[in-house]
Fold:
Amino acid sequence: MVCSLIFKNSKLLKIGLIASTFLLCSSILYSEEIDLDLASDDFDLLEDLSFEEFEADIEISDEFKISTETETLESISGSPITIEGSDTFSGSIIQSLVFGIENPGPFFKRNSRGLERVRTNINLSTKGEVFSNLKYKFGGLVRFDWGDWQGEKFRFGGNSTEFSLKDVYLDFYPSNNIWIRIGNQIIARGQFDTLSISDTINPRDLSIPAQGELSEFRQHVPAILVNFPLSDFKIEVVVTHNAKANNLGKVGSSFDPTALFQGLAVPGGSPLVPVYLKPSNQTELFARLNYSFNGGDFSVVFSDENLNQRNLKAINATTLSTELSFGFDRVRMLGLSGNLARGNYLFKYEGAQLSSMPIAGKDPTALPWHKRDQSILGLGIDYSGVDNLTLGFETDIKFTKDHTNDLSGSKTSVGQSIQARWTGLNDLLMINGTLSRLNSEKSVISSIAANYNIRDGLSLGGRLVQYHANSATDSFYPYKNQDVIMLSTEYSF
Structure:
């Protein structure tokens, strides 16, 4: 009720959101006499220029794990699956402020340092059972932006509201060993925390890369998932339809995808307008053969899919505007992944062979783009031998077959990522740090985040994200001044 009154008063809202949102909401929520349960619920326009290399953050929430790998393993263990409680309702309210540290340049809406985003996210979900072998989950997100940059200044008003469905599915267990999920879902199967090789089912939200948790970047897809045992192996088949693509920034936003093409000669200097095409085939197939053993597991994966990143397909220039049409490319992938735990070490690996990958020439506007086969190998290691501290390192090597000098990038390219996670104060405080260099580039993204649990269900967070790029050919060069400081408070129930 108190929060509602605050939000209805625009003058008070402006003051409260900027000056005291976090302390105010924290005190309000903390004073409520409610028994709370803690709930947690890369824009690849050019080949080798990928936001997808960096997915941000090491930690994956408990809810995220339940909806992916963890539940898969439980469902095929030979024991009946149970969900605690017949019907449960949960949610979270996240209030965040984002402050731009530098002037990003005149091309973007924000053309000076200052407040960039004031956003409220409301996540709600319910789950339960229809019958003993038929479960359901229904969840959605309401996103409310309190203002935008207008006339060289952030102004409250002109608010925008977005609603999106998240987990909306049915789980069917015809036997103790077979699990079928139908509906909107997350299916995360990769081994790495930052690099992405074989984990390609779910597209990403790249509109604000690295400015959030990994679970926030994955986009739900409509799919049918079937998981069943075969001797000592586990078979998983996934079919998606109309899974869409990576979500890119809007024109004028901090990560406007047309920024990479600002050097394009257009009639009369007409503005660039992105046009997003639909794929000719909207159905995708993924299959995985998994073998688990004491201390590790091994998987072979196959896919016939649309790339999650759209690539430049056509340019239509007029005196009024220049349309850049981005469309899908169809590829096939044969890959492997796995991990091995030994003492305080966790060794991880992924590899993939990709057919007919699109690669731009030195001039990305020279169409059509070239098609080449690519091989990618990734290795990673996590070390947890120090109290309250986990260190991680990941690297991938990409090899392009029949690469020539007229193509962008290089024949062989390498990317790396370093992560660190520390917990203290009886696990109430968590600090995450990530440093990633994009494949084949000098671009580096660094992020450090802290989160403190005031009590069960209530936490405060902060994050510093920096984008480093010195070469004009790097994908993050147009965004090199988009560094931000983020503050947030979360109430979950």
Residues 34-492 form a domain with the Porin fold (CATH 2.40.160.10).
